[in-house]
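Why do we care about 3D structure at all? Because function follows from shape, and shape follows, mostly, from sequence. That is the central idea of this module. The next example makes it concrete: a single protein chain, its amino acid sequence, and then its structure expressed as tokens.
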Amino acid sequence: MKAKTFAAVLFAFVLCAGPFVAMADDPPQFPQNATFTTQAITPLAIEGLTGDDAENFYTTGRATSPALCPVWRITGSTLVIVGFIPNPVACNPSGITFDRHGNLYIADAASSGIVWTLTPNATTPPTATSYATGVPGTNGLAFDRWGNLWTGDGTTGQGRVWKIAPSGGACELTFIGCVEEFRIQPMANSFNVGRQNSTLQPAQTPVALPNPQPLVANGLAFNQEGDLYIADTARGAIWKAEFDLHGNLKSKTGCDTTFTPNTLCLDNIFVAHPFLEGTDGIALDRAGNIWNSANERNAIVVVTKDGRVAEVFRNPANAAGLRNSADPAYGNNHILELPTSPFLLGKKFCTSNSDGDRRDNSPRSAGEINAGGAVGARGKISCMDQELIIRGLPLPVGSD
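And the structure:
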């Protein structure tokens, strides 16, 4: 075993005993004994989260019946509509991010997949226009230093990662202004050789069956060197795709001929760890640490720039032995409910919660936002009570 690998394994072993503990020559990078408090509750399900320089957050509501789905600006606990997403079928927005000019981009997996764009305006909320089409399952969003927008294919499970030109375009099937740059290796090839990662649920009525988890290209984030990190929800891993100075992919592809030739080789996995099971959205701080919302574990996990893994927070077990709600004395406004998208706003860390009915968050009807019950509230923003020790990396990266 290589010395570097051994050190990483030893460090991970130490961390398994509890929260992050700094070594003698390693000052704390993350808050110790972190706690969370609900900042805002949304009346519709949400997933993505981003923010602006004025310390406002932005997210999007998922609706099945209205003609339009709202885009909210959130200041404290107050929600203001600043735009709408067309909803001809049933909008399914997830990733959301700003470009360097203050325009929002929203990944919508409804229909064949659309990336919308709008300039937020609370006085006259605009309806988003199409920026890219033909992006099935579009989920995480991230801009590179050249103004290209990157997105993955989410729950389709094929692992496609697209690069969309600054002027927008159409991905599948025409690939105008858009290229399929590479693929994250899916859980099975086209011959159905592979494995299925399933989530077991607590006993319910009717008894829930295992939920398959094929998602391998989820959250995306660029570091300051121009490399792209991709959250692999199914494996509990982070992939790293490296590029040269001209933006050409350097990472090796095509190691397994049963997958498409542009599939990244497995040695492009930056780190895999049980703490990362269910990793959804990711965000970086200025030191290059990767913050993860580990959705199915109701946890927040950080991966350091050198590949060490630390669990900063996880819902404590309640009286029923589950982590889907808090004991009454503690309060459900201090727990996570399937956290999906972290955002680091200066020294403030927050994450959205979609309250999906999976693993630690099942049954979801027990929590504060109660997506399975009569309350009707479907999403929330939870923020860490402690300040970040290292500030968040400003986005988009390289837009000085």
